[in-house]
Design a protein that fits this description.
Keywords: Membrane, Transmembrane, Transmembrane helix. With 430 residues, this protein is mostly helical. The chain has 19 helices and 5 strands. A hairpin with a 2-residue loop joins strand 2 and strand 3. Helix 4 packs across helix 6, helix 6 packs across helix 10 and helix 13 crosses helix 14.
Length: 430
């Protein structure tokens, strides 16, 4: 039975629910990953020793670093001769803006939210400063005395779910160092993460606008870029199917069988993403694979997939490219021998599995795939009659000992037959 004579409680309830949409959504948000993205390797997205922001706050295995956050904040206050109130008051003004920056409602009350942002933000800034300026470090600081702690901090601070808004870091940095010197903060952050990058990138240190940076992971993505960033892919005239059309390419071993020469490509000012293919030669910049590489790639791909701009997904496209090149440990071995892959995992199969599984998280085929033109030219090269014949010969005869023996035997037999024929012809003339 409908309520009568009173207020329309259903309408009021809906009205309250809609209040969350009274403000326009922020352009950049910090999300929780959807389950499908996590299910292949859940651990790649979870912090190992430190929680930053609300999503992993309170986890038991991350409590060790909470004491270090307080220690860093205490040393900061002593260094600057300041009180906590200055930082609390500054961040309190940004609390609501920070809450809107997260895609999900934050259950922390106002005091908890402010405390978290002050301690997390000041810890990050002090860590960056101590890394750059050794005289700021305490003599027995375990973060800089134990490599395993430092390496895990580098990894954890760029995780997709383990972020606080960059404008919070900027506000705190204004009070710790010179106001509005955010280029200095960007420089410190990029220097801190430089060891984590598996290859070179076209970085523009200090030139990124603060307003375009969502968080530390976004900063890494925007500064570790290809040379072709911001440039529309050039459509090959031979591509008659139209823009965005491309087909898979063979793996490394099959490309070699088809006569494609694969070389390490190093050029000053170049980028890991700058792969080239000319006159049957594929040039690929060197890539270092170590224990943190999978997590690094996965979180950058997650950032790209949640981004509003899906036109230039550099990392996802690059990983997809490598997935096509690498089908098995044999492909990894070839790339390692060419100096293209520097394998610190020590296991070719582990590297093969890494790229095959990461690629599973890249959904669909992009209309803006950056390597479409290269794929088309590689396929044209491999489809030429001589290259098809060469690939067939290599695949059916030259890839196994018995095949090579049969080819050798046939060649010797042909040579003997030819020699006998020559002797017969010239013998008659003599």
């Amino acid at each position: 039975m409908a309520r009568s004579g009173g207020k329309d409680f259903v309408s009021m309830n809906i009205y309250e629910m809609l209040k969350v949409f009274s403000h326009p959504p922020t352009e950049s948000c910090i999300f929780r990953l959807h389950e499908e993205l996590r299910q292949i390797n859940d651990k790649a997205y979870d912090p190992e020793i430190i929680s930053i922001g609300p999503y992993h706050r309170g986890k038991q295995n991350l409590q060790m670093m909470e004491r270090h956050k307080l220690r860093y904040f205490h040393s900061l206050l002593q260094e600057k001769n300041q009180s906590p109130k200055k930082y609390v008051d500054a961040i309190r003004e940004l609390e609501q803006k920070a809450r809107q920056f997260y895609a999900e409602p934050i259950s922390l009350d106002s005091d908890e939210m402010i405390t978290m942002m002050v301690l997390d933000g000041c810890f990050i800034i002090q860590l960056l400063r101590k890394f750059d300026m050794e005289f700021l470090r305490d003599e027995n600081d375990p973060i800089f005395k134990r490599d395993w702690i430092f390496n895990r901090l580098q990894r954890d601070l760029m995780l997709f779910e383990n972020q606080i808004p960059f404008f919070i870091l900027c506000k705190l940095f204004d009070m710790i160092e010179a106001p509005n010197n955010h280029n200095r903060l960007i420089y410190l952050a990029l220097r801190f993460f430089s060891d984590l990058l598996p290859g070179t990138g076209k970085r523009e240190d200090g030139k990124e606008s603060q307003g375009k940076i969502s968080h530390l992971l976004g900063l890494i993505h925007s500064n570790w870029r290809p040379s072709f960033a911001g440039v529309e892919p050039v459509e090959d005239a031979s591509n008659k199917k139209g823009k965005g059309y491309w087909r898979f390419i063979p793996n490394t071993r099959e490309l070699q069988e088809a006569g494609v020469k694969i070389e390490k490509f190093e050029v000053t000012g170049g980028s890991l993403f700058d792969i080239e293919f000319k006159s049957g030669v594929m040039q690929i910049p060197p890539l270092t694979i170590e224990g943190r590489t999978e997590s690094f790639f996965r979180n950058l791909i997650a950032y790209e997939q949640y981004s509003l701009d899906n036109q230039f997904s550099y990392v996802a496209d690059y990983v997809k490219f490598l997935d096509f090149l690498i089908d098995s440990p044999k492909d990894v071995k070839i790339l390692s021998r060419r100096g293209i892959i520097d394998n610190w995992l020590g296991d070719d199969e582990a590297v093969s599995n890494l790229f095959n599984k990461i690629s599973d998280t890249v959904s669909g085929t992009s209309m803006h795939f950056q390597y479409a033109d290269i794929f088309n030219r590689v396929n044209i090269h491999c489809s030429q009659p001589w290259n098809l014949y060469r690939a067939s010969l290599n695949r059916n005869y030259l890839n196994n000992p018995w095949g090579r023996i049969s080819i050798l035997a046939a060649s010797v037999l042909l040579l003997l037959t030819l020699t006998q024929t020559l002797f017969t012809v010239f013998g008659r003339k003599l």
